[in-house]
Amino acid sequence: MLSIKGPLGSVADGDCEEPANLVENKTFRSLDRFCKLAIISVAEALTDSGFADAHYDPAEVAILFGSATGGVTSMEESYFRVFRQNSARIHPLSIPRFMGSGPASAISQSFGITGPALCTSSACASSAHAIAEAAWYIRSGRAKAVIAGGTEASLTYGGVLGWQSLGALARDTCRPFSIGRTGMVPAEGAAALVLENYDQARERGAQIYGEVVGCGYSSDAFHLTQPKTEGAIRAMSQALTESALPSDTRFLISTHGTGTQLNDSSEAAALNILFAADLDRHLAIATKSSHGHMIGATGAIELLIGLLALKNRTAPPVCNFLGHDPACALPLVVGEPREFRSAALLSNSFAFGGLNSVLVMSGV
User: Fold this and answer.
1) CA–CA separation, 108 vs 104, rounded Å?
2) 21-42 per-residue burial string, b: 16 or more CB within 10 A, e: under 16
3) The predicted structure's pLDDT at residue 12
């Protein structure tokens, strides 16, 4: 049994710095933006979790962080200097800034964590995979606590142009599962969570937001950008089976909900097949309509929002919703926030290349 403590929070313990101090730190200023966002989110999570009170050996704490694109801000700046300004030199730290493993190193160095540290990269499922792997680190005894999450900062000229060329960008705004939806809205950000053994967290009086009770992975083996309904069903089924929750459990479903025609209809079809006539017993949310698509960080931020919704018994509505699409028949929360009594959270992350990760959380 695992607990997640601290979707929000900053370290006020000996070797760690407050976010305000981190921003002024010379090493921090030298990092790519996606690493800076990761560090700030981790500082907040550690404080909210009361991590300093746990007194873990730093070697028994692991770091698992997801990112899809790595240091593209620094990469694009370097290319601009070379190809537009005809510079013969770029920043001497360009290579470390580019590296997708940057958050693991930056978090380790910033907070003195000496246990296993690595990054996952599976497009839009990157941080969901990181959190699921973190849960298995705790179960296996590989770590006493894990700092997990995701970060992304790819709102560059080239990055946005790439989404535009793909035909995935919304013409106006993101409106998942709605009639009139035209695509996604890219965003950037980071989200961090602290996982540890449930009994240990409860014993030290930590604020517990939920328990990781099920994880499911699958790959579509189908198409680079088009989803396959069967792959989503396999990942959700695996997570639900592992959770061993009663068959009558009511779920808050945090959908992947990108706002694109194909992805939304495929996910809706998968949910209808999986839950069949029971689907209307549950509630579905689609929070990319408010925070945009954070790519590698999206699984973590959506899990965080879902946990807070579960804790507060209030589900956020789908923003910008114009009306129900018959091809996306889901029990969506629209219009106003809705109070609910769901006992568990099902959080979906379905990525390009058919890489799927699903997390099931129970409330506390």
Assistant:
1) 6
2) ebeeeeebeebbbbbbbbbbbb
3) 29
E strand or H helix that includes residue 195: strand 189-197
Q: What pLDDT score does 172 carry?
A: 96
Q: What is the DSSP letter of 272?
A: H
How far is Cα 220 from Cα 232, in angstroms, rounded to an integer?
A: 8
> What confidence score (pLDDT) does residue 21 get?
67
The reported pTM is: 0.93
pLDDT tops 90 at residue 10: no
Q: How far apart are CA 344 and CA 48, in angstroms?
A: 22
Are 67 and 152 in contact by the 8 Å Cβ rule? The answer is yes
Instruction: Name the average pLDDT for the chain.
Output: 92
- DSSP H helices in 167-297: 198-203, 229-243, 261-275, 288-291
What is the 8-class DSSP label of residue 142?
A: S
Burial tier of 52 (Cβ tally within 10 Å: 0-12, 13-18, 19+): middle
CB 78 within 8 A of CB 42: no
Active site residues: 124, 256, 293
Average pLDDT on 238-261 reads 97
What span, in angstroms and rounded, lies between the C-alpha atoms of 308 and 305?
5
Please give the backbone phi and psi of residue 338, each rounded to the nearest 5 degrees, phi first: -125, 130
Give me the pLDDT at residue 343, please. Answer: 86
Q: How far is CA 275 from CA 182, 245, 286, in A?
A: 27, 14, 18
Q: Which two tokens stand for residue 306?
A: 């879902």
Tell me the per-residue pLDDT of 169-220, one tens digit each, with 9 for 90 and over.
Answer: 999 999 999 999 999 999 999 999 999 999 999 999 898 999 999 999 999 9
